[in-house]
Amino acid sequence: MKYYCIGIKGSGMSTLAQILKDLGNEVSGYDDVKDYKFTQKGLDERGIEIFYGPHPLDPDTIATYSVAFKEDHKELKRVKELGLEVKKYAEIMGHVIDSFETIGVSGTHGKTSTASMLKHLLENTLGCSYFIGAGDGKASSDDRYFVAESDEFNRHFTYYHPAYSIITNIELEHTECYKDIDDIRNTFNIFADNTKKLVIANGDNEEVRKMNFKTRVLFYGFKDDNDIVIKNIKLTKDGSAFDIYLNKELYGSFLLPLYGEHMIANATAAIVMAKELGLEEEVIKELLLTFKNAKRRFAIEEVGPYTLIDDYAHHPTEIKATLKACRQKYPDRRLVAVFVPNTYSRTKDFKDEFIEALSLADMTYLTPIDCNREDPKDYPGISSFNIIEGIKDAKAIDDETIAQLADEKDAVIAFLGCASVDHLIKAFKKAISTQN
Hints:
Elements: E1 2-6, H1 11-22, E2 26-30, H2 41-45, E3 49-51, E4 62-65, H3 74-81, E5 85-86, H4 89-97, E6 101-106, H5 111-123, E7 128-132, E8 136-138, E9 145-149, E10 164-167, H6 181-193, E11 198-202, H7 206-209, E12 217-221, E13 228-236, E14 239-246, E15 249-256, H8 261-276, H9 281-289, E16 299-303, E17 306-311, H10 316-329, E18 335-339, H11 344-349, H12 351-358, E19 363-366, H13 385-388, E20 395-396, E21 412-416, H14 422-435
Parallel strand pairs: 1-2, 1-4, 2-3, 4-5, 6-9, 6-10, 7-9, 10-11, 11-12, 12-13, 17-21, 18-19, 18-21, 19-20
Antiparallel strand pairs: 7-8, 13-14, 14-15, 16-17
Helix pairs in contact: 5-8, 10-12
């Protein structure tokens, strides 16, 4: 079949395009952004052509589009005028994974890291296809298992019917498409009910515990009332150590080359899922030691006297977890946060929470809000300054003023946001190079 992916450089759409190509389909796409994005690597490797303007399309092509593209976008309007069949991104993804024994990894936070860990464990043992929302995907019809990061945004994951699922947590998020926490939890319940064999869920999470599970469920977490309990945690600058107890008996002791208790919880979900699929404890231990996190998840780069961290954190809970992880790895270093807010709705609804989370840094900078799916006219008075005003000494920053970070020698500088921060990092490197 022929597919045309509009917004093909988006992390989810890029991944879907790669998977469709791997399964033998003809795939091309369109994007507004001509600059290179990290999600483009897999597309280029597969020879998937990207267009930036009108071009001929075969009438039997199926078009799909990123949610960042509104119904009145010129390219979406054009394919409809050409008479092409248009399907939702999640609908196509749901159809693809139905042909595998799929493990759907969901949660407000942590689904990319958890899915990446599980993919690492299975890819090196049983084999698996996978869809990771960081622009990383691969598929083969020879694989039995498919690890699918399952996004709750716009209720995407309700199109999925996995054999197994993981729920890392449920929290208020995406207020532009959910009316309240009950709406979010009920949507996660649909995903859980669509699961055929087993749900592995974070039992420490209050909203998860409110769910009504029809499918068999195992709860994991740090509290003793879970089926799987995490104990004896040791957080050092070299990584994280912890024990896992199953039904009050020690299953194993694990070392993880990652930072923060949130990563221990994510790893536990992946470990339990791998065990359910038949992997031996010692194999899991060895593979975890070689795990490297997904793109833009605590990615570290040393640049002269500066340590730069590129992280996808964009919700207050995620920011707090990332900054705590920075403190774990670099306990004696000054910590600077550079945050790129994404969406006006999130900035408006979580202002106080952002202020609390970003205050964990020694110094905080914020860029203007970077949003391509909301109209700022719908959010009068909402800007980064709503957060800046609540944090002591916080400042505004952008590509043109990034040179002010040059004074932060020997600091750990965390660039945070789900929108691209690469342009900021490049501008910073350029600024410090001209000062030397």
